[in-house]
Specification:
Layout: H1 2-36, H2 40-48, E1 62-70, E2 78-88, E3 93-98, H3 121-125, H4 128-139, E4 145-150, H5 151-160, E5 164-168, E6 172-176, E7 181-185, E8 188-192, H6 194-202, H7 219-238, H8 247-257, E9 258-260, H9 264-274, E10 282-286, E11 289-292, E12 301-304, H10 306-317, H11 338-343, E13 345-350, H12 355-367, E14 371-377, E15 385-388, H13 394-404, E16 408-411, E17 421-425
Parallel strand pairs: 1-4, 3-10, 13-14, 13-17, 15-16
Antiparallel strand pairs: 1-2, 2-3, 4-9, 5-8, 6-7, 11-12, 15-17
Helix pairs in contact: 1-2, 2-9, 5-6, 5-8
């Protein structure tokens, strides 16, 4: 009997040993695949969904039309927000192009009617493909996907993640009893809940007729800029680690308030790489054109400039060069004067994970005469990066790089940027 028990224990130990070896082997294989897929959260997610090291290489740029639908008036459903969004997993770059909601889609501007504005297309049959067709005709892009987001989605999402910290650009005071809309926000950085977030993105002008200042972008231009910048903050703050525990609530909000033709396979292709996307690499622009009411009905519409639009689309989606400059051993002999340094507005974002580094970099730049106009934090990044936001001279970027003693330079120019240069502190900064 004792011998039988000993044999059973011996067999049991061997089985456990085999299972342990198999588990260790499987773990080693999984870890190796994660490594081959780039490591980190991105590599882990890519491995879980069955990707290999060639999957990302074969993915092209993802483009979709984003429509923000105002549902406060029953049966109307005008598109208050219209954007073309793109993301390239191989370059980790993205674009947001705003389409003014009054953009004229007809053939004869002299006979323009409100019915032909692009924001009215969705309300005709509640079919996003009509707006998608119009945007493709305007931009020349072959966009296949759309995402329709109801107002309720924004309100609920902001509340789910505990509010969004945002710097409201101006005092906003507007009341419209016909829409049951009351906007009352004070300028300055604050935490916006869902209700205040809706007020922010719907604001166009105050009760007294004033709107955003001209240097910010008046009326709809300013409104679109605020919408884009708020969307960026929502993305950033939704991606915070603590919100992983709210993923069920977030998905429920999307399921109930988002309409899309993006299928699950496409989502699983791109999401593993999108988790590491840095919103500082998002270029934002507005469709070129100007408002006009030179028609029989005196209806205000936005007439887009075809020539400028073609050039902008080429720049954003085809010729955009955001590759890192090749570092050389050539010394920069041109110097930057003290007065020039004072005129360069610098934004410093901490992506190193070490809060002390932000203060060190800011103090160092200031001691060298630079104007640090804005600071903040961003997603963790490996390399310190100096980004040209407003056609700053190369010598300025090189001088900042020399001052920091580290970094690579990029061009990511945006007409809406309030700074000339953004410095992102990476984990490589010592």
């Amino acid at each position: 009997m004792k011998n039988t028990n000993k044999k059973k224990k011996s067999i049991f130990k061997r089985v456990l040993l085999v299972i342990l070896i198999l588990l260790l082997g499987a773990g080693a294989v999984f870890a190796y695949k994660v490594y081959k897929n780039g490591g980190g959260m991105s590599g882990m997610l890519a491995t879980v969904v069955g990707h290999d090291e060639n999957t990302k290489k074969n993915l092209g740029e993802f483009r979709c039309l984003v429509l923000g639908i105002s549902t406060d008036q029953e049966g109307v459903d005008l598109t208050d927000t219209i954007m073309v969004a793109s993301y390239n997993p191989n370059t980790q770059k993205g674009t947001l192009l705003s389409i003014p909601r009054d953009t004229y889609t007809g053939k004869n501007p002299s006979k323009a009617t409100a019915y032909e504005k692009i924001n009215a297309l969705y309300s005709r049959k509640h079919r996003p493909d009509e707006t998608l067709k119009a945007v493709n005709e305007i931009t020349g892009l072959d966009i296949k996907y759309y995402v329709v987001v109801k107002t309720e989605a924004l309100i609920k999402l902001v509340d789910v993640i505990g509010g969004v910290t945002f710097n409201v650009p101006i005092d906003m005071n507007y009341d419209d009893s016909s829409q049951d809309l009351n906007i009352h926000l004070k300028a300055g950085e604050q935490v916006l809940d869902g209700d205040k977030a809706e007020q922010l993105v719907r604001f166009r002008h105050n009760n007294n007729g004033t709107s955003y200042p001209e240097d910010y972008g008046d009326n709809d231009i300013g409104r679109m800029r605020t919408q884009r910048e708020f969307v960026l903050q929502v993305i950033k703050q939704t991606a915070r680690p603590e919100n992983i525990f709210k993923i069920g609530e977030i998905l429920k909000v999307a399921e109930e308030n988002v309409i899309t033709n993006v299928d699950f396979n496409v989502i699983t292709d791109y999401v593993p790489y999108a988790v590491e996307f840095n919103t500082e690499d998002l270029l934002t622009e507005t469709l070129p054109g100007k408002p006009s009411n030179q028609n029989a009905a005196g209806t205000w519409v936005y007439i887009y400039n075809q020539k400028e639009t073609k050039a902008l689309i080429q720049k954003l989606f085809y010729d955009r060069d955001l590759t890192e400059n090749i570092e050389t051993e050539d010394e920069i002999t041109t110097t930057v004067t003290s007065s020039e340094k004072k005129n360069i507005k610098i934004e410093v974002l901490n992506g190193s994970g070490d809060s002390n580094k932000l203060q060190t970099v800011v103090e160092h730049l200031k001691s060298k005469g630079y104007n640090v106009a804005k600071t903040g934090t961003t997603n963790a990044t490996a390399r310190t990066t100096i980004i040209n936001k407003k056609q700053a001279k190369d010598v300025y970027l090189e001088d900042i790089k020399s001052t920091l003693g580290i970094g690579v330079t990029q061009n990511s120019q945006s007409t809406s940027s309030i700074v000339d240069v953004t410095v992102i502190i990476g984990k490589d900064y010592k």
